[in-house]
Amino acid sequence: MTLYEIVQSLQLEVRAGEGSLSNEVRGGYASDLLSDVLANAQEGDLWVTLQTHQNTIAVASMKGLAGIVLVNGRNPEIDTLEKAEEEKIPLLVSALPSFELIGRLCQSGLSGIRR
Amino acid sequence: MRVLHADLHIHTCLSPCAETGMSPFTVARLARQRGLDVIAICDHNSAENVTAVRTAARPIGLAVIGGMEITSQEEVHVLGLFPEDGSLAAAQAVVYEHLAGENDPDMFGEQLVMNEQDEVIKSNHKLLIGATDLTLEDVVQTIHELGGLAIASHVDRPSFSVISQLGFIPQSLGLDAVESCSDRVSASPEGLPMISSSDAHRPGQIGTRCTRFLIDDPTIAEIGMALKHVGGRRIVMEQ
ipTM for the complex? Predict the structure, then answer.
């Protein structure tokens, strides 16, 4: 599934990294602790978080994540947007709370467990 | 006793997120120029530039407290300020033992250890931006066991503060103070003493905020007394 398809079906707002929406999404990871994402997210994961600071972009880039979705309509900081453009990391925003957004991502066929 | 101007939260080029221009001699010189009497060097999870800043600061009459900004498992930043080199080194050893990962300078930034003449000695390869696997409680306890002061960093910020990560300040933690880095908080949370500091990552930020202490000497013992408001020591409020 591409990130573009997810953006369309879940009506996500694209705030940065629009050029990389063709990224293949292979799974999902949800966490608000950067250290946890560094340790446990896998390449190609879509990362669901409420963290809006710029270190998220470095983490996503380092782990080769497909993109980041901010929940609850959170507003990314300006330097986060700049860094996301620089690193070509799609930064998306959903108005939904985490629980609901993740439920819908699972329904659409994404999984948090890789075989 | 006298009023000393203290900026107790300054990073150097050892912190990946700080500018490389935050070199030991430059930090010391700018701090003195801006009227500070005492600074604390608090890099992320490391204290390897403390000695260089102190050596650079001695001839210009600036006191330097050795510290570290330790990241707990919950990704809460806590300043540990230590009374002498031995306790700082011991704290450093505990933090390193509990800090995994290797830095990627392209992603997070350079981590330079320098001497007092701003010459690069080496790069630190640990993932200093990372979190230790110590709980917040363990971090505060470790600092206290080594005779240090534990201060919750930038409680007025939306990330990496005890309030952003936990939502409140557990009374049982026994923090010595909280730090504010903006004018957003006026009253101190939970009745804890509140200090004000710059959290400088760039030369221009050094001394932009400071705390005025009425104390005898710029030592941890005296600052600790001022935080407790005992022996006539205290924080002098801004007019």
Answer: 0.74
